[in-house]
Amino acid sequence: MKRQNLKETFSNSLSSYYTGLISMIQPIVAAYMFYLVLPDIAKFDVFEWFMILSTFIILLIIWIEYFRNTQISRWVPNFLDSLIPYLFLASQMFAIHSVSQSRTSWAIGIIGIWLVAGMAFGNMLWRMRDQEQPFEHLIQLLKKQLNGVFLLIGFSALSLTVLLLLGNDFYTEKVVPAVSTLFLITYVLMREWQYIQLIKKDKEVNEGERKKIEVASIRKSILKLEKDLQMANSRLISKLNEPQ
What we know:
Elements: H1 6-12, H2 14-37, H3 46-72, H4 79-97, H5 103-128, H6 136-165, H7 169-241
Helix pairs in contact: 2-3, 2-4, 3-4, 3-5, 3-7, 4-5, 5-6, 5-7, 6-7
């Protein structure tokens, strides 16, 4: 019986740990958003709807990112892994509370969410570096894709910060919600395309491995056939050489 490895046990439980935690946090965020938004829904203008749409997209993004990434990668959870989901919770709650209060505060909450997202991806890459991964053939492509993710996160957070620092009501009240929604839609489209590329790469590698196995099996069969023919040939020669 193989002895159980504690490190493997911890890393293999990562998916259930994170998915379970996020599956508890995100419904709380959604319920809080609907609780605050529904009473004033008739009063909202188009830009407040942008804010609500952005916040809801973020809610979905966080869940699906945790689910997908913990299926692809493995590492042993530590204190930071426990802290990051609650930082997401706090920043989302702050942004939601600010929807009908202050668009500046809402934008600060969104910037906070982008920064926590950058921390989460950075933590994932850092923790993966010395851990054996279940999809090792996808790791290099995943790391390359995350460079684009970091670029978009940094550009989004910086752009919103600059718009806020301009101190113009037009930018704060109208441009920031619209730009935030645009960034989030761009993020979703980019990540969906990236996951399609990962699945395509995995399929190509699996197909290549399958062909290698088939070729190896054919070679093995040919070698066996050659060996059988040699043995049959040896027997035939022996019989022909027997004295009559």
